[in-house]
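User: Fold this one for me? It's SDR family NAD(P)-dependent oxidoreductase.
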Amino acid sequence: MKKLENKVAIVTGAGRGIGREIALLLAREGAKVVVNDLGGGADGKGNNAKVADEVVQEIRETGGTAAANYDSVAEFENASNIVQTALNEFGRLDIVVNNAGILRDRMVFKMSEEEWDSVIAVHLKGSFNMTRVAAPIFKEQKGGRFINFTSTSGLIGNVGQANYAAAKLGIAGLTKITALDMARYNVTANAVAPFAWSRLIGTIPTETDTEKERVEKLKQMSPAHIAPLVAFLSSDESADVSGQIFGVRGKEIMVFSQPRPVRSVYNSEGWSIDSISAIKGSLQSAFTPLEVSKDVFPYEPLV
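Assistant: Here's what I get for SDR family NAD(P)-dependent oxidoreductase.
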């Protein structure tokens, strides 16, 4: 029996890249899939219904079951429409994969309010919107799966992505609290940080030889590598896995640490600028270096 037989899944941003591969694999594992994608560009602009329709057709041609939805997750009322599509077409909902995303990269001292708001709206608010609408259904049926997408841009850091990093680290927090709030109802929530070539990563500048070499390495990491972990987290096999942050880098799967105290100091008389300055060195040994993702993952991906 297929691992997701009789399950119904929503995959947002499922028209291309990682979302498409997830939708295809969930369908192959027996899930009925709502393919959500408004068909916009990497910056979120534009609308092309064919993007979702083509994935639906591909699923159907291989014997699967799917329906398209073209709403943007950035608006709360649209989340209701997306969930209602699943209920209208397939009668239930078991899995929500919050994958939709856009990029508006800019150095923080140049970033506009619109560039900030649009990225936060799609990634962070969009993930909340879908979670908020689906959670009562999962609560009532005492079961469900949320798989959210975070990024090393937020978990570690990347230059010029204040909006994206803030959204993605916010999604890590949303995932944790969703896992806590929904645990008593047999609902899990986990986050995945993907390393894979996609149209979003395709916006990386390639002006120098170093940049070109980096992009060529990224192109080796297929979006298809991400889908099996998402399928596992969607299945009954993962009932005891919740509140975790995973990474997929080629054929490597990792679990990320989450913030915990690593060093502390105590002063019975309280603290002043001078007394903190005096013990600064004992804390500095535990400071996290100011790094970007490629500093933490300098080795070649296992593809």
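One thing worth pointing out: The chain is about 40% helix and 15% strand.
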